[in-house]
Structure formats: structure tokens, C-alpha cells
Amino acid sequence: MRVIGVHPARDPVPCGEGPVQFGSAPDNDIAPAGAGVDPHHAVLAADARGLVLTVRPGCQRVYVNARAVRERALLRYGDTLTLGANKFLVTTDSAPPQAEGITDADRFEGPVLLRIVSGTASGQALAVAPELHLGAGTRHFGDLAYGCRVSRAGDGLVFESASTEPRINGWHCKRARLSPGDQVVLGEHRLVVEAPGLEYAAHVASLPPPPAVEPEPPPDDSAHTEIWWLIAAAAVLAVLIAFFLYFRW
Description:
Layout: E1 2-7, E2 10-14, E3 20-22, E4 42-47, E5 50-55, E6 62-64, E7 67-69, E8 72-75, E9 80-83, E10 86-91, E11 113-116, E12 125-127, E13 131-135, E14 147-153, E15 156-161, E16 167-168, E17 171-172, E18 175-178, E19 183-186, E20 189-194, H1 196-206, H2 222-248
Antiparallel strand pairs: 1-2, 1-10, 3-4, 4-5, 5-8, 6-7, 6-9, 9-10, 11-12, 11-20, 13-14, 14-15, 15-18, 16-17, 16-19, 19-20
């Protein structure tokens, strides 16, 4: 992950999986100054659940997307953190993949939703079937000065906009491929991609190929042949012994 200073502006800080220490003391990874920032204020780390923000005991609250956090919160890439008067943006290490050369052939058919996670409509799901138009001139987020579209194409999802204002996982994007869990930010509106079928397909594609199964060798009949020869030899020997005993008697 990367942490970018939005206000005041700071260069991006590559942080890997963390943990990232926030606080005014100089031994922190990121040391914002000013009122409302404690010497060792908060920790941000990535684990199996995602990005976890922990506010240290006794410290002032931290705001995630303007929502107060007193102890712990789960974050997504593209969320903002505010400590005092300092605002930060958390992004992925690299920009979303470009959606180049994608056609409508073999269009992905699984369920796809964009779930709103901000504002009064939080929790509402918008279906991509097979397209979803957002922004200016549409039913959703008409307050935006630009329009954008999410569509099914090829084996995934494509985001397109005439503006560079939208952010995906914290990165400005006009056209990009979306993945399950990506956060799309349009002005003050936040949406998260939910596509269980696409996520499962990606998981299956990431699995190693199954080991090759070698054909079983043909059964070896030589052992059975040897047994029959032994039985035949024993029978002949028994007949010879019987004749010998008969004529001798």
C-alpha cells in the first residue's frame, strides 16, 4: 500500500503490508504535526481481513472518510484518514490494470453489483446488467459534472469515464479493469465492486494445474503363465509316478 498526504500535500510513502505508524513523534513512519495528533497515535496494517486501522488507547479519534474511529476499523484502498488537520489517502501500490483490447466476446455472466458505501444510500446495490451508467444525465449521482459507465466485457468488468476525476483504489482513472473488492470514488460517492462469480473464476485461474495422471501399465500376465506351467508340470509328474507305481506293483 501507499499513503499519500492530501492536506498538507506530501509525496507518496510506499508502505508494503505495513504496519505503518502514525504520530507526531519523529520515530513514526508518518509524522504529521499540529493539534489533534498524539505522539504515537495510530497503526495501519494489512492482514487477511484487509487493511486494519488501530487507534492507540488514550489517543484522540481518527476520521476515516469523515467517520470517527475511536479504537479499530477496517479500511479499503481509496479511503482517507484524517488526524487533526492532516488528511491522507491510502492507495494500492500500483494503478488498476488498463482495460485495453477487451471485447464483448465471452461476456462474463455472473452477478455483478456496485454497492454504495457512503451517504444516505449506503448499502444500496446497483446491478451491472450488462451496463451501469453513473453521473451526469443518469439516475444515479446526477450531481456529478461528468458521466461514467461500468460494463461487462470479455472475462471481467470495465470502468470508463470522460473525466480523470474518478478514483479506483485511490488512483485517478478514465478507463480501467475492475476486480472484486475495488473501491470506486466519484466525488463524495463511494462504491465497492461485488462479483462473487468473477472472484471465484479468478481464484480458480490462480490455482496450479493438477498433476498429470500417468496411465496404468498393462497387466503383466507372465506371473499367471508361470503358475499354469507349474501346475501342468506337477500334473505330468503325478501321472508318471502313478504309472511307475502301477507297473511296479
